[in-house]
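Tutorial handout. Part one gives the primary structure; part two gives the three-dimensional structure as tokens.
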Amino acid sequence: MGSLDEVRSRYADRMLLGIDGDTRRLREAFAGTRRDDFVGAPPWPLLGHEVGRVWIDDARDLYQDALVGLDAERGINNGQPSLHARCLAACDPQPGETVLHIGAGTGYYSAMLAQLVGERGRVIAYEIEPDLAARAAANLKPWPQAAVRAASGVLPALPPADVIYVNAGATHPVAAWLDALRDGARLLFPLTPDDGSGCMLLVTRLGGSRYAARALMRVTFIGCVGARDAAAATALRRAFALGSVEAVRSLHRGDRPDASAWCAGDGWWLSTRPP
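Part two.
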């Protein structure tokens, strides 16, 4: 299999296959971040449709496109690397930017975000589970630009941000996230009904109250505490059943939905017309 460095290098190449644009910085982040530093002590439960559940103890086996279980009872895992690669490419953190990472787990993708924003940037990693937050804080010590908050990432007032990357499913675009976006900033979060399956929605604040929005890919995530609403979940299930989320082009706040509405909730709606 080769050395651990060689295995991580090949892993980085595989995770970025098919992603358009300049992926050199993202590749460096994947190749340079040791997944084995973020998933606890071996043996590790490797999870996925192809592998089922397999226990492994060779760190080189961690570098494949599969989930690594962190807490089976709570349904918490380390995330699918290829999915996060596509998401990080889409929200495109730049050197010097401020990123809020909500649902940071033990900090594996927070570490990549820290490398993408560089020493002049800032990553604030929110993790509501105290034990995971403590592990993330220890794991992220090599990156002084990253700080961990053992707190909810859905409550106002969040710091102003250039990127908000959410790794737990929400039934709606949370007002605190939208309020924290600077002009030109990107919010990427899983928009999911109660069953956990939905899509990654990329929202870009164009200026003031104008937001572009588009669905990137279908996903399944555990729920985001504080970002679940029964009425919104019902509306989402209906919207996913009746119309293609790929038609969504904009997000609106406060005003009355018009005929272009794909889904509407309390104080927000998604439209199929451009912003």
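Part three, for discussion. The mean pLDDT is 95. Helices lie at 4-15, 24-32, 81-91, 108-117, 130-139, 175-180, 230-242.
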